[in-house]
């Protein structure tokens, strides 16, 4: 899907409850042509709901407005257990984990649209996650310009 980042409305929590909270401080900041991109790690959702944990997220801004987010989301199994009234052990078994979080799922949000890319296919280290998320983000807006770190 190609998205015109210049024309779409701002991305807000009204669109989806699990978009990243961009009021938190990013880990890194970048610029690519006329957009700014913030990298968030272990960021809360804009809605404050805790059943979704955002392990990594790139958020693209145009004119200082968040337009697109590409994230690696995990389900917080403890919060989900309480919300659904299902035992934590049952959710852990269902998710094939002994931990408190499900495996990472890659999603992209823009105003009114959510695209799911499925399970994370790279190792969860910054040197692999960032290029992977940048590829998804820049392909979706059809940008080929160089990404420049601002920090």
Describe what is shown at a glance.
The chain has 151 residues and is of the alpha+beta class. The protein is 21% helix and 34% strand.
Give an account of the 3D structure.
The structure is a single chain. The chain contains three helices and seven strands, in the order ββββααββαβ. By secondary structure, the chain is α+β, with helices and mostly antiparallel strands. A seven-stranded antiparallel beta sheet has the order 6-5-4-3-2-1-7, with helices on both faces.
Helix content: 10-25%
The beta-strand count equals: 7
Which structural class best describes the helix and strand composition?
alpha+beta
Spans of at least 5 consecutive residues with low confidence: none
Shape: globular
Succession of helices and strands: EEEEHHEEHE
Average the pLDDT over all residues and give the rounded result: 91
CA distance, first residue to last residue: 30 Å
Order of the strands making up the biggest sheet: 6-5-4-3-2-1-7
As a whole number of angstroms, the C-alpha radius of gyration is: 16 Å
Descriptive key words:
151 residues; alpha+beta; seven-stranded antiparallel beta sheet; 7 strands; globular
Summarize the SSE layout with pairings:
Elements: E1 28-32, E2 35-43, E3 52-62, E4 65-75, H1 77-84, H2 88-94, E5 105-110, E6 113-119, H3 126-141, E7 148-149
Antiparallel strand pairs: 1-2, 1-7, 2-3, 3-4, 4-5, 5-6
